[in-house]
Amino acid sequence: FLGGSVGVSQMVQAKFVVLVGAGVSDWKAGDAVVGGFRLGGFAEYAVLNAEGLTRKPDRLSFAEAAAHPAA
Question: What is the pTM of this model?
C-alpha cells in the first residue's frame, strides 16, 4: 500500500510504502520506492505487487525518480 504521490505520468510514480501485505519481507513502511502503474498512478494511495517496485535512489528527488524511466 503506497502513499505520498509524486510523478510525471500516471504510469510511473515515486511514493512511500505505507503498509505491506502478508508474506512481504523486502519492503517496510517508510521505504521510498518507484513503481509502474497501469491506471491510478495519480491517486493519493495505491496498491501494487511488491515485485513491481524498486528502491528510489537516495541521490534522486521523488520527481527525478518518477521521471527517470520516461527519460
Answer: 0.74
